[in-house]
Amino acid sequence: MKILELTAWMAVILPAAVCAQAPPDKEATDVDEVIVIGRSVSTGLARIAVDREMLVDTATVLKDIPGANVNANGPVTGIAQYRGMYGDRISVVIDHLGIVSGGPNAMDAPLSYVSPMITEELAVTRGIASLSHAPESIGGHVSAHLSRGDFADAGSVLDGFVGSRYSGNGNVSTTAGRLTLANDQHKVSFVAEVDDGDDINTPAGAVRPSRLHRERGDLSYALTNDKLSVLFFAGRLDTDDTGTPALPMDIRFIETDLAGAQATFNVSDTQSLDVRVGWNDVEHLMDNFGLRQAPMAPMHRQNLATGTGTQVSIVGSQALTDSTLTFGVDATTADHDATITNPNNAMFRVDNFVDIRRDVVSAFVEWQGNGERSDLELGVRVKQVESGAGEVAASGMMGNMGTNVGLLADAFNAADRDLSWDSIDALVKYRLHVASGTQWRFELGSKTRAPSYQELYLWLPLQATGGLADGRSYIGGLGLEEERSNEITVGFGKDIGRITVSPQVFYRRVDGYIQGVPSTNMIANMVSQMMAGAPALEFANVDAEIWGADIAWKVELSDHWYVDGIASYVRGQRRDVDDNLYRLAPPNASASLTWEADRLSISAEVVGYAKQDKVSSFNDEVPTPGYGIANAMLVWNPHDDLRLEARVDNLLDKAYQDHVAGINRANSSDIPVGARLYGAERTVSAGVIFSF
């Protein structure tokens, strides 16, 4: 392990140390692009061609982006993490539109809606996301695009692909396809993917339940001409009987309908208008007895949750002399309900979230000036967030438990639940091309995030916490203030001969950071003690700071050989007390040696994670040791239309625990309850994709 970790870190440090200044490969809209393990990374953007990755959870590819990671609570429930922030703090959009999740524990995290083989690209904004990207992006911005094919140059063309991938560990299979009929102005496309698998094995035993089944489809129509570009789409996500062993319940079904429309009008040579409308509706059932070892019948629980969201945005753009002015307004609405029952006891019922609404209305203006050697971006966004909740209730609980739960419900119903937050976000980005060729990037921003509905309205001590997965029970805080992050980022990109690097350093000072602290509500603590064996944590505002650095690099050894990799370091701690922030990825790096010819590519990769002993005492977080693993992959294109793939993960069959993986909650697993989930054992995968 020590050798693998040292190899990964040395592979990162040495290229950076020998780099000298030279002109980067500059694009019109962004900056020097570095190929990192087959991905495109720059000082301003990191892209991954997701459909080329052999995986089942699209969020997993975030591990190959500098500064990014994924909090995994199950096989398809990855929650995006970027530079120490995760969950609702990160904006995730699919084809420029967000997703309202149905599950209060993020079982249908936004990236679960983009199945890998039909997802063309995933991009992460490095540094501070522009204010035009999203109304709330305090922790970063992730953008994904489904693969809907291209317009034809002339005539009508029918094209697409069909493919399948299989992994021996857990018999995980993926089958996907796309069919596109297009000419130079019209395009109709249908994409679909089915993912299925059994429980995953690790060197420490099987993870039960970690089975999965997901179906995703999308039908779209697009039009383009000199004046207009239009996209209409409708889609469906069905996830059935999928394990989430780090959470109190598993997925029995998630049924989501999605629809949207987008149009770009070229009003003149200097003016354009973008209009986007999106909608999705989720119905989600979970339980604690169907897929995992069931508790005694009186403790059977199932939760039916629903969520509905709408989005509208109108953005105008005006080209000026050597600059562009962009301005827009947008609005999003989200509605949630969740009811907990016991199928063995018709009297038991907890109205956990009732008539929840969270509405965001905002407007922004952004100016981008482009000089010969420098670029400047200035942005301001004005925002209002309003939320509300209906009255809650509970029944079917006896004795002191029923009395105390009733007191909590009465106190919640008597409180003011209609809340609002007004804020202003501001951002400055400056990019400088110095004479020596190095491209510098300086960013300074102040952004806000209003509390989530779980952080506000969780009136009964439960673990419906947006996927925190720490095993603690929480209650909400109706007096929560918004979070404000003041951040500075500095980075550069340089390219000398066959060597390219793109490092960045950052610092975030977060006022009002929302996390759980020991509750002073004695009734809530008594209820939590009876249900979970520990007092409750209450969502509250604290002060925090997060800082670190990350780098992407590549060295071309010859026309056919290259080595590339990434490295990331993040440190987060409270400023008001002596404690660390919860569930932050430890220092990590990866390096890959690749031989690439016209039709064949072979890669060997090492991945190293340092120990994580900077853990949160308030969350009872347990340290993890460091580890290193090796992977290998092969891609062969014997024909222009045929792609054959093979991959071996964890080649040395190493037992390891990823620090941002969840803590096991399922009694039926070989992993003890309370232990962190282990990574998969040696896993061999293969795939074939035929294009036409």
Terminal residue distance:
44 Å
> What summary fits the major beta sheet?
22 strands, antiparallel, barrel
Q: How many domains, as an integer? A: 1
CATH class group:
Mainly Beta
What is the correct CATH architecture?
Beta Barrel
Percent of residues in helices:
under 10%
Unreliable residue stretches: 1-35
Can you offer a commentary on this structure?
The protein is mainly β and 692 residues long. The protein has a single domain, classed as Beta Barrel (Maltoporin, Chain A). The protein is built from four helices and 36 strands. The chain has a 22-stranded antiparallel barrel. Helix 2 (399-414) crosses helix 4 (522-532).
Throw out a few tags for this protein.
36 strands, 4 helices, 692 residues, globular
Outline the fold blueprint.
Elements: H1 2-18, E1 33-36, E2 39-42, E3 45-48, E4 68-71, E5 79-82, E6 85-86, E7 90-94, E8 97-98, E9 119-125, E10 140-146, E11 157-167, E12 172-182, E13 186-197, E14 200-202, E15 205-207, E16 212-224, E17 228-242, E18 250-266, E19 271-287, E20 302-320, E21 323-342, E22 345-370, E23 374-388, E24 394-395, H2 399-414, E25 419-433, E26 439-449, H3 453-457, E27 474-475, E28 483-496, E29 499-518, H4 522-532, E30 537-556, E31 561-574, E32 588-596, E33 600-609, E34 627-639, E35 642-649, E36 683-691
Helix pairs in contact: 2-4
